[in-house]
Amino acid sequence: EARALERRFVTARPLFREATVVHAVSGVDLAVEEGETFAIVGESGCGKSTLARVLTRLIPASGGSVRYAGRDLGGLKPAQIRALRREVQFIFQDPFSSLNPRMTVGALIEEPLRIHRIGTGPERRARVAQLLERVGLPAQAAGRYPHEFSGGQRQRIGIARALASGPKVVVGDEPVSALDVSIQAQVVNLLADLKREFGLTLVIIAHDLAVIRHMADRVAVMYLGQIVELAPAADLFEVPRHPYTEALVSAIPLPDPGARRARARVAGELPDPTAPPAGCRFHPRCPYAIGRCRTDAPQLSPRDAGGRQVACHRAEELALAGLGSVAAAR
Ligand code: SF4
Ligand code: MG
C-alpha cells in the first residue's frame, strides 16, 4: 500500500552547474490486494520502473509511505530489508544483464536460499532442480552459465531465482519486453501458472497493454509519474475512462491482421519529465483538453462502486457521451 508516494532524482548537470530534480513518481496512492495480479502500465519514462523499485524498497522513497503487511518500509534497517527480500522478490526487465555471468545457473538460483539460510546443501540443490523443472528447463542447466541460454530461457532462470525463497509477492518490471514476441506469451503464461500454483501476489509493470490484458485483475495507468486511471482490468479494456487509457487501449494490435479499426494513437512525444506540463500533465497531447486542463491539475477520484478511479476533469461528461462519439463530434 502506497500513500502520497514521491520519488525524486537529482541529476547534476555539470555544464550548467545546476541540479535538476526529476519527480519520477509524484503523489501516488495505491493498495495492492493479497493474491491479485496488479498491473502498472504506461509509456517508457512515465515512472513505472521507479514506482516498482520504491514499492519493493529496492530504492527508498523521497516522500510519502509504503506499507507492507502493516509495516512501514521507510524505517527498515538493512537487516530488515534483507528479511523483506525473502517475501518480496523482483524479476528484472533485462535477463541479459540481471544474472551474474560468472555464476552457474544452479548457483544463481541457490543464492537466495543461502542468503536466507534456507535448507541444507543437498536440500537446496534438490530445490534448485525442482525449480528448474517447474520453469521448463532441464536439471542439467544447473551446471551451465547464463550466456549458454536464450533470452526466454534466461528469463525463466530469473523467475526460478525469484521464486526460490518462497516469496509472497513477486514484482516483474517488464519481464517480457526484452523477449521476442513469439516467446512473450509463453513466459506470461508461465508467470500466470506459477502465480496460481504458489498463491502469489503479482505486480506486473508493462508498457504494452496486450501483455497484461489476460492476466491482470486490476490495472493502474501511469502518465508522467502519476496514476491517471485505476480500474478492474476487464472494465478498463472495455470502457476506458481516461483519454490516455483510451489511446493505449486502441493502440493494442488486433489479433486478426485483416481486421481494421480506428486507432487513436497518442499524438506527440512524452514531455520532458524534469518539467511536466502545468494543469493536467496530459493536456498537450489530449484531444479533449479544455481551458481548465491547462491550469488545474485533476485529482484521482475516490473509488466508485465498480472500484474505478480516474483523474480527468471531463471524465463524467466523456463517459456519458462515450469517448469515441465526442471525438467524432469534434
Ligand atoms: Fe484531457 Fe483535460 Fe482530462 Fe487531462 S483533464 S485528460 S487534458 S480532458
Ligand atoms: Mg522501465
From TrEMBL:
<dbReference type="Pfam" id="PF08352">
    <property type="entry name" value="oligo_HPY"/>
</dbReference>
<keyword id="KW-0813">Transport</keyword>
<dbReference type="InterPro" id="IPR003593">
    <property type="entry name" value="AAA+_ATPase"/>
</dbReference>
<keyword id="KW-0547">Nucleotide-binding</keyword>
<dbReference type="InterPro" id="IPR050319">
    <property type="entry name" value="ABC_transp_ATP-bind"/>
</dbReference>
<comment type="similarity">
    <text>Belongs to the ABC transporter superfamily.</text>
</comment>
<protein>
    <submittedName>
        <fullName>Oligopeptide ABC transporter ATP-binding protein</fullName>
    </submittedName>
</protein>
<dbReference type="GO" id="GO:0016887">
    <property type="term" value="F:ATP hydrolysis activity"/>
</dbReference>
<feature type="domain" description="ABC transporter">
    <location>
        <begin position="10"/>
        <end position="249"/>
    </location>
</feature>
<dbReference type="InterPro" id="IPR003439">
    <property type="entry name" value="ABC_transporter-like_ATP-bd"/>
</dbReference>
<dbReference type="Pfam" id="PF00005">
    <property type="entry name" value="ABC_tran"/>
</dbReference>
<dbReference type="InterPro" id="IPR027417">
    <property type="entry name" value="P-loop_NTPase"/>
</dbReference>
<dbReference type="GO" id="GO:0005524">
    <property type="term" value="F:ATP binding"/>
</dbReference>
<keyword id="KW-0067">ATP-binding</keyword>
<dbReference type="InterPro" id="IPR017871">
    <property type="entry name" value="ABC_transporter-like_CS"/>
</dbReference>
<dbReference type="InterPro" id="IPR013563">
    <property type="entry name" value="Oligopep_ABC_C"/>
</dbReference>
<dbReference type="GO" id="GO:0015833">
    <property type="term" value="P:peptide transport"/>
</dbReference>
<dbReference type="GO" id="GO:0005886">
    <property type="term" value="C:plasma membrane"/>
</dbReference>
<dbReference type="GO" id="GO:0055085">
    <property type="term" value="P:transmembrane transport"/>
</dbReference>
